[in-house]
Amino acid sequence: MINSLENSWKQVLSHEFNKKYFKELESFVVSEYADNTCYPEMQNIWSAFNYCSIENVKVVIIGQDPYHGEGQANGLCFSVKDGIRHPPSLINIFKEITTDLNCTYPASGNLERWAKQGVLLLNATLTVREAQPGSHQKKGWETFTDAVIRIISESKKDVVFLLWGGYAKKKAKLVDIKKHVILESGHPSPLSANRGYWFGNRHFSICNRMLHNKNEKKIDWK
Fold first, then answer.
1. What is the pLDDT of residue 215?
2. What is the CA radius of gyration of the chain?
3. Active-site choice (65, 82, 100, 146)
4. What is the pLDDT of residue 5?
5. 147 and 16 in contact (C-beta within 8 Å)?
6. If you write DSSP's letter for every residue of 6-66 in order, what string do you get?
7. From residue 89, how far is each of 18, 63, 122, 159, 209 by CA, in Å?
8. What tens digit of pLDDT does each residue of 124-149 get?
């Protein structure tokens, strides 16, 4: 399963692949994709890593589960394929961007453009069975993606972590706040956003200001 993973990640994560949990995870995923319809497509499981090498990581956004509907998930958290209707959380993300950065609402929900600029769009669980949200949780993916966050924290500096919602905020304990920046807010889902926990967080302009202060190129969020 790891053959298609980008080389820089393959190197820094090599010790994880030999662990018992990962071998069991790999067997589970291969079996699930053979016997059921799962998302994202097998070749897109590693998209978050393949579009953003560890050397290029400047920002980390953490999601929970891939979209479980047909044609939606493309391996990047909150992102959908081109031409797919924007899910509610992504709509609210884009609404915040339009007000924060005074720009027009983006036409495409495909966030590959962010990933290619150094935004690691990391779901805690990288796969899911169709129409069964959470079906691949607690199978080993969370152990693996926690290791990814730790490696970023240990090996890099001045990364901006955007933690949206209670689940993502729990990952803060994996990040060395002496080396990195954490921005927290409510989740962009309608349930949270409509209660006032999302809109107005200005995470996109704040993130860019922090990158600029560290002589890093800003992210074009538009």
1. 95
2. 17
3. 65
4. 97
5. yes
6. -HHHHHHTHHHHTSHHHHHHHHHHHHHHHHS-EES-GGGTTHHHHSS-GGG--EEEEESS-
7. 36, 11, 15, 24, 24
8. 999 999 999 999 999 999 999 999 99
Report the distance separating Cα 82 and Cα 185, nearest Å: 27
Query: What residues contact 206, with CB distance under 8 A and at least 6 apart?
Result: 183
User: Known catalytic residue: 65?
Assistant: yes
DSSP H helices in the chain: 7-12, 14-17, 20-35, 47-50, 88-101, 112-115, 141-155, 166-169, 190-193, 203-213
Contacts of 217 (CB under 8 A, 6+ apart): 117, 211
| Section 23-48 average pLDDT | 98
Asked if residues 100 and 94 have their Cβ atoms less than 8 Å apart, the reply is no
Distance, CA of 81 to CA of 86 (rounded, Å): 9
Measure the CA–CA gap between 1 and 192, rounded to whole angstroms.
36
Give pLDDT, residue 31: 98
Structure tokens at 188: 């962009």
What is the Cα–Cα distance from 102 to 111, expressed in whole angstroms? 19
Give the three-class secondary structure for 128.
Answer: strand
